[in-house]
Structure formats: C-alpha cells, structure tokens
Amino acid sequence: MSSPVGKWDARYLGPVPHDLSYYSKCMLGGVLACGITHAGITPLDVAKCNMQVNPAKYNGLGPALKTLVAEEGANGIWKGFGPTFVGYSLQGMFKYGLYEFFKDFYMNLAGEEATNKYKPAIWLAGSASAEVFADLALCPFEMTKVKIQTSPTGTFPTAFGAALKQMSATKVDTRYPFGSLVPLWSRQIPYTMAKFFFFEKIVQLFYTHVFPQPKETYGKGTQLGVTFASGYLAGVVCAIVSHPADSLVSQLGKAENKGKSIGTISKEVGLLSLCTKGLGTRVIMIGTLTGFQWWIYDSFKSAMGMGTTGGK
User: Fold this and answer.
1) What is the rounded distance in angstroms from the CA atom of residue 40 to the CA atom of residue 163?
2) Taking all residues of the chain, what is their mean pLDDT, rounded to a whole number?
3) Contacts of 124 (CB under 8 A, 6+ apart)
C-alpha cells in the first residue's frame, strides 16, 4: 500500500495502513499471545523458580513437580496463576503493540535507504523501546508471582487479591511494586531484543531460501508454520540470553535475601549457578512459549486482515 502523500512511509508498507486501529489490534493480539501462554505453563514456571532458589531440594523438572504436588497438592503447581495471567497480558499488550509502533517510528526516522541497510538495528531498537514500557506494567505482578511461588507453604498468601494486598502492606521489605524493575529490565530487554531480532531474521531466511516466492502467494497455513518455527528457534536463544537475570529475579523473592543488594546476591549464588540452574527447563518452556506466542499473535493479525509478521 502506497503512502497517501506519495512519500515513502513505513506505516504504508504492509497490506493495511499502520494507524491507531492497527496498533490497537496489535496490542490486543499481544494480550492474547502472552497472557494465555504464560498462564498455561504456570506449573513449569513454579518448578523453574523453585529450582533456582532451592536447587538442593528441587534438582530437576520432574522431581520438582513431584515434590510440589506431594507437599502442596495439585494446586501447588498452579501457584501464581492470577498475577501471571494479568501481568503478562499487560506486558504482551505493550511488547507487541509498541514494537509495531516503534519499528515504524524508527524506520521513518532512518528513511528508506538506511532502513533497508540497517533493518536489524531497527528491530533491536524497536523491541528494546517497547520492552521498557512493557516491564513497567509487568513488574508489580511479576514480584507478586515470584513471592507466591517461592515462599514456603503457609508463609505467604497464594490467592491473587490477598497476595497483592500483602505485597503492598510489606512493601518496605518486599520493595513492591518496582523493587525488581532493574533486574527485570536486565532480563526482559535482552530477551525481547533477541526474541524479535531472531524471529524477524529467521522469518527473513525462510522467505529468502525456503519459500522464495512473494510471501502473499503462500497460504495462511504455510505462513503461520513459518511463524511458529521461527518463534520456537528464537525462543531457545532468548532463554539462554536472559537466564542469569531470570535467576536473579527469582533469588530476590527469597525471604533470606531480604534487604540484600543485587551485587551481594550475585556473589553469593555465583555466576555459574545463575547461568545454569533451571536452564534446561527454561529452554523447553521459553522455546515452546515463544513459538506459540508468535503463532497466536500472527493468527490474530491474519484473521484481522493485517497479514503475518516479517518477510524478506
């Protein structure tokens, strides 16, 4: 679609103009993509968090899940479902919606020639900018989720409303609502940059070498298959890149780390432990998660007549 003023404009490069309606729909697609998927894998997240904060007791995915069910019942592996669903729905809204906005903004700022030459830099800048705002929305709920999931049974409320109230009441100790914002940024911004960069790059490679005809000549099934495969592969890279910071966020939720600085916790736990404890579980979790997030997001966009993300 050509720009109405005849000048090159990134907002008019796709099948539909990127106006307020487009960005709003992308935000809704992000809510669906992130809220549903993150909430759906709550048991894996509970196991992963406990493996990070108490690796001696929870020394593997299977044993961790078995221990949690034995000690807390079936509900034990679904702790934190409420803040997970709400927090990641809000995060997804800003992550995807603002990525589309910032990508167009930076492309127009750079101009046509620079955009074509430095497209990867546009992807990185757009995703990093979007994630800054996405994490502001996520942080209070992520802190609550981690506290619910890592507190010993009976020491902290597990109901969503009661947990939020307790976090607020003890904010001097818990540093609620933005005490984990810096480690969250350190986890999520590299994660999101990797997620969007590698997704866009892998999609580009698919449509350059595997499906070389114009993207629009392929059916929705093929396009969404490319979306899922690209998302899954990107997710594996994301998990590795962001895992040390993810471990640190989990450590901040431990009662015995109350009042300690990030540097102190990092030294006590050790770099190797921060980089490796729970990594295998997180690779499985994030790979699958990211693949389905992109598939849900692009399925929604496709159903709205907005086309799938990425191309040559």
Assistant:
1) 20
2) 91
3) 193, 196, 197
Rounded to 5°, the CA angle 64-247-38 comes to 70
Please answer whether residues 230 and 199 qualify as being in contact, where contact means their C-beta atoms are separated by less than 8 angstroms. Answer: yes
Closest CA to 49 of 91, 86, 88, 77: 77
Spatial neighbors of 150 by CB under 8 A, at least 6 apart, are 49, 50, 53, 250, 253, 254
| 267 — pLDDT class (breaks 50, 70, 90) | confident
**C-beta separation of 289 from 225 below 8 A:** no
- C-alpha to C-alpha distance for 59 and 64, rounded to whole angstroms: 7
Tens of pLDDT, residues 164-219: 999 999 998 889 999 999 989 988 898 899 899 999 999 999 999 999 999 999 99
Distance of CA 226 to the CA centre of its chain: 20
Cα gap 86→298, rounded to integer Å? 21
Listed residue (33, 205, 190) closest to 127, CA to CA = 190
**Per-residue pLDDT, 171:** 92
Quote the tokens at residue 195. Answer: 């997620």
Q: Give SS3 for 2.
A: coil
